[in-house]
Amino acid sequence: MMWDGLGLFSGPPVRRLADGGGAGGGSSLSEDPPHPAPRRHARRPKIGLALGGGAARGWSHIGAIQALEEAGLTIDVVAGCSIGAAVGACYAGGKLGELRNFALSLTKRRVMGLLDFHLSGSGLIAGERLRQLLERDLGGRRIETLPITFATVATELGTGHEIWLTKGCVVEAVRASYALPGIFDPVKIAGRWLMDGALVNPVPVTVARALGADVVLCVNLNGDIRVRGTVIQAHGADESVVDAAAAEAVEQLPAAPRRWPRLRGVRQPKPRLDPGMPGGIASVMVDAFNITQDRISRSRLAGDPPDVMINPKLAQMGLFEFHRAEECIELGRQAAQKMLPEIHEVVSAAALPS
């Protein structure tokens, strides 16, 4: 008898008498076959999905999620920022189909109808109409009761703190995450005034990991931007140097139409002397937001890269072209399908023993 290390005693191998074949009816001694080693089952790793910010480009999140589901991948954790928070909340709450139908129904006219402009708040848009849309599908839901683990990111006004919203009202958390400064009013939650999370963490990979994901996939809506900022080390302000291309463009500007009446006291419109002059306030704000988000995204993703990054080809998609949902969703689907072999490889490699 001997101690087998499992708390049990075991003796020598049992030898049994086995009937032999043939007329002689002889017999032989044989040992019991060894017991097979217990099979070890691998535990499926938890898959996290980080959905980045990018306004109308965020419709591509819908296509990416659909492609992942069609490939048999189960998402256990969703972390969203800005438009990624809205899509992620609908997905975690089982309302992705309703969101897709809404996005496909948008036209330029309907998009404008959803914007309730005002001048008395901290932003140009009150956001009440958008809140009502969210309430229709997610009203009364709390983050901690969603079928899929979910969190969103916001930025605290004044301090710049990165706030992770992991409990409480889903609608208010989403509104806080997409409250773009100057466009939407900040949202007050638990005594803090919150605004767009893209200011601090545009693609919340860190949040998905902190929520327990073993493998983190991310959808980066700014990964296809072709113009990358650099440093111009020597730039002067010599007004005597005239850009030949700019001068030629000025010469080609059309003259004022003759049909405009030459009324006394009415100034005639003049062409811009500088064709490179920036556009209106909305154009400048969008461009500034694009630059800021791109710089922050690259910095954050370099410090904590995802296991697989999905980069939809969205360079030609405007930030506020919400009416191009069908095209955007398809671009997200194509980008996710392209990365499926790598995703399956990473998920298989991350399988853990049960």
CATH class of the domain at 47-224 and 283-350: Alpha Beta
> Which structural class do the helices and strands define?
alpha/beta
Question: Compute the gyration radius: what is it?
Answer: 30 Å
Taken as a percent bin, the fraction of beta residues is: 15-25%
Strand count = 14
Identify the overall geometry: globular
- The CATH superfamily of the domain at 47-224 and 283-350 turns out to be Cytosolic phospholipase A2 catalytic domain
Q: What is the typical, i.e. mean, pLDDT?
A: 80
> What is the H/E order?
EEEEEEHEHHHHEEHEEHEHHEHE
Would you spell out the secondary-structure blueprint of this structure?
Elements lengths: L1 E2 L5 E2 L4 E5 L7 E5 L10 E2 L3 E5 L8 H11 L6 E5 L1 H10 L3 H9 L3 H6 L14 H11 L10 E8 L5 E4 L4 H8 L9 E3 L2 E5 L8 H6 L4 E5 L24 H8 L29 H23 L4 E3 L14 H25 L2 E2 L1
Parallel strand pairs: 6-7, 6-12, 7-8, 12-13
Antiparallel strand pairs: 1-2, 3-4, 5-14, 8-9, 8-11, 10-11
Helix pairs in contact: 1-10, 2-3, 2-6, 5-6
Overall description:
Residues 49-209 form the PNPLA domain. It comes from Methylobacterium nodulans (strain LMG 21967 / CNCM I-2342 / ORS 2060). A motif (GXSXG) lies at residues 80-84. The structure is a single chain. With 354 residues, this protein is α/β, with parallel strands linked by helices. The protein has a domain at 47-224 and 283-350: 3-Layer(aba) Sandwich (Cytosolic phospholipase A2 catalytic domain). 33% of the residues lie in helices and 16% in strands. The chain has ten helices and 14 strands. Strands 6, 7, 8, 9, 10, 11, 12 and 13 form an eight-stranded mixed beta sheet that branches. The longest helix has 25 residues, at 325-349. The radius of gyration is 30 Å and the shape is globular. The model is unreliable at 1-30 and 253-273 (pLDDT under 50).
